[in-house]
Amino acid sequence: MTSFRGLDVGEQGFGGMALAEVYGPADTEASLATLHHAVDAGIRLIDTADVYGGGSNEELVGRLLKDRRDEVVLATKFGILRTPDADGFRARGDAAYPRQAVQASLRRLGVDRIDLYYYHRVDPRVPIEETVGALAELVREGVIGHIGLSEVTASELERANAVHPITAVQSEWSIWSRDVEAQVIPTAARLGVGFVAYSPLGRGFLASPVTELPEGDLRRNFPRFQEERLAANAPIGETVRRVAEAEGVTPAQLALAWLAERGRALGVGVVPIPSTRRAERIDENLAAAGIRLSAEALAALEPLGALVTGDRARFVADISQGRERAEAADAAGNA
């Protein structure tokens, strides 16, 4: 059992985003059955966000919680506006917003407390100290149990943790998305902050071949999934499948086992939250627990992150990688 500041989250969680029609139409009852199977299989951490499906994903998780609240560590997020305001679609982090957002999430989820509440994206107009200070008030009131941050830089994490202990950072981390290893993860390890890895299977790329994407598939918006870049990245997936076969595991299990190995190597507690619509994929993913990869496998996988063509996000300034690039450019310009 993995624990972040006393919050027992298990070895692997479940990311709810795929159940919110971001990869095409989803069947609500089938999605609910998938959530029940995840809990039946032993998953404790269920991760959602107020923006997934315009709030419908929280409502779906709420149907699960109606009968199984005590079995679930509930995580959700706020900060990305669900509808545009006068300034358009953006992140919002002013002190008044966390209270407004959490009350709406509580209603959709049908609960009176959220175990782990994330600031989903940083509002560049608001000091992170202000946002975390507002979240700390919600902790003191018992509305939320723990504070999380998503896609923050190392310096933002440091500043936030000085206001109130941060329980977990959530960012993309996988064989082909390793930018967080440079600064964010060492800072999290030093501060005793857990790491929740979203898209640990590379949005499906590492689990099975991705050659073309259907209309409505969210991945069409990501640079590395656009046609020419996707073709250029194909050898990365081929290497993952070749190494998985040599290790006697599936590509998804290889990717999850690699993440566990990296967490141990870097001294940070890590819990991946792969997302799927299929119950059998949950079982496959959970079977990665305890797999130890050979030195040969780790050596073969090590260079893959540097071979990726295309950024991991459409709006790079919204993620930690983009702001760290900006910080580095500013430092170089001032040198």
TrEMBL record:
Keyword annotations from UniProtKB, A to Z: Oxidoreductase
Every NADP-dependent oxidoreductase domain range: 13-302
Domain of life of the organism encoding this protein: Bacteria
GO terms under cellular component: cytoplasm
Classification via SUPFAM superfamilies: NAD(P)-linked oxidoreductase
Gene3D superfamilies in UniProt: NADP-dependent oxidoreductase domain
InterPro entries membership: AKR (IPR020471), Aldo-Keto_reductase (IPR050791), NAD(P)_OxRdtase_dom_sf (IPR036812), NADP_OxRdtase_dom (IPR023210)
Pfam family, any one: Aldo_ket_red
MF GO annotations: oxidoreductase activity
Protein name: Aldo/keto reductase
